[in-house]
Amino acid sequence: MQLNPIQLFDAESSTFTYILAAPGAVDAAIIDPVDRHFERDLAHLERLGLRLTHVFETHAHADHVTSAGRLRAHTGAKACAPSGCGIAPAEIQLQDGDRIGFADGEELAVIHTPGHTAGSMCYLWRGNLFSGDTLLIGGCGRTDFQGGSAGDLYDSVTGKLFTLDAATRVWPGHDYKGQSVSTIGWERAHNARLAGRERADFIALMAALDLPRPGLMDVAVPANRNLGLAHSV
C-alpha cells in the first residue's frame, strides 16, 4: 500500500524534510532534516506519538545545515549517510542496494545516484521516491561541485530512476516554484532538463548554466560532514 510521507519545508533554503511513519506504527524515520527546524521536527514527532529511529541524509548539503547530529543525540536515532559523501560520524554508511529497516515491517531501499554529488543517494519507500537533489520537479540538481558530474547524473536518472514504475511518487529535496510532489511517469515525459534529451546534450546544458556558488557552502558542507554538529543556528 502506498503511503504519503509528512512533508515539511524550509523557506530559506527551499529544502523539504520528510517524516516517514506507517499507520499505527510508533517508530519513524526522517530524511534531510534542517538545523533551524530542530524544535519543529521534534514537535511533529511528539504530537504524532512517534519515536525517531533513523535519520537519513541524501548527501552532504551545501545550502543548509542538517540537524542529524542533534536529533541523534536527543532521540537515540541512528544516523544514516551515503558512504561516498564523507559523513564519517554516521554509524550507518549506506551502500547501493541496502535495505534499511526503520520500523516493524518498514524499510527504505537505497539507490546510489551520483551526479549532484559523487555520493548522492535516493530512497524508495512504499512507492515513494525521495530523490534529494538528483531529480527535482521539472529539473535536477546542479553538478558543478563536490565531485558532481553531469554525465553521472544523466545515467543515474535515466538508468535508475526513470526505470521505476511510472506511478512512483517523486518527493524532491528542494522546490523553488511552489510544487511539492510529482511522479516518475510525469518526469520521464516532461522534465525540462532530461525528458527526451540525449546524454551529450544534457552535459552541454549543465555546463552552460554558470550558477553562482552557494553562499553557505563553506559553512554547510564541513558542518554536514559532521552531522551538523560543528554549527548550530
From TrEMBL:
This protein's UniProt keywords: Hydrolase, Metal-binding
Domain of life of the organism encoding this protein: Bacteria
One Gene Ontology molecular-function label: sulfur dioxygenase activity
GO BP, one annotated term: glutathione metabolic process
Database matches in InterPro entries: Metallo-B-lactamas, Mito_Persulfide_Diox, POD-like_MBL-fold, RibonucZ/Hydroxyglut_hydro
Regions annotated as coiled coil: none
Domain Metallo-beta-lactamase residues, every copy: 14-174
Keyword field contains Metal-binding: yes
Keyword Hydrolase appears in the UniProt entry: yes
Protein name: Glyoxylase-like metal-dependent hydrolase (Beta-lactamase superfamily II)
Organism: Massilia aurea
Lineage of the organism: Bacteria, Pseudomonadati, Pseudomonadota, Betaproteobacteria, Burkholderiales
